[in-house]
């Protein structure tokens, strides 16, 4: 939004909506934020230039069905970027779900994002990385993440 993009956000969290609107006010931008459920959300075909998912952890059975469905809303040439906690995050105390089912196995999630239910996607970058988080008291310290950058053909 700060660089002039029309920005839309959806999440299950009303607290997230409040934080988003506070940040939007601080930066004098507007963001369309909907509290919504991935499994119920409608995704119009080919309308987005970019979809970014950060810390978007859902049960694997929901993710397998609905993440590929979300990708169909990318325009041709549109980008998908996602960062989330890797399965190796489990023993670390820097945040994230404490259920393996909610953490990302890189190969498994990549298979879902480029699988038969997804549109044709090109892999630009996929990696597991160590990083230092400084997000909040509950999300601080060394963390293991997985990063995806794909582009729709």
Verbal overview:
By secondary structure, the chain is an alpha/beta fold. The protein has 2 domains: 1-36, no CATH class; 42-152, Rossmann fold (3-Layer(aba) Sandwich), CATH 3.40.50.150. Helices cover 22% and strands 37% of the residues. It has 3 helices and 6 strands. The protein has helices spanning 14-26, 60-71, 106-113; strands spanning 8-11, 32-35, 48-54, 74-85, 121-136, 139-152. The strands form 2 sheets. It has a 4-stranded mixed sheet, covered by helices on one side. Strands 1-2 form a two-stranded parallel ribbon. The longest helix has 13 residues, at 14-26. The mean pLDDT is 95.
What's the helix-strand series? EHEEHEHEE
* Portion in strands: 35-45%
Overall 3D shape: globular
End-to-end separation in angstroms reads: 25 Å
Describe the largest sheet.
4 strands, mixed
Task: State the gist of this model.
The protein is α/β, with parallel strands linked by helices. Helices cover 22% and strands 37% of the residues.
Topology:
Layout: E1 8-11, H1 14-26, E2 32-35, E3 48-54, H2 60-71, E4 74-85, H3 106-113, E5 121-136, E6 139-152
Can you give keywords for this protein?
3 helices, 153 residues, Rossmann fold, four-stranded mixed β-sheet, 22% helix, 2 domains, alpha/beta
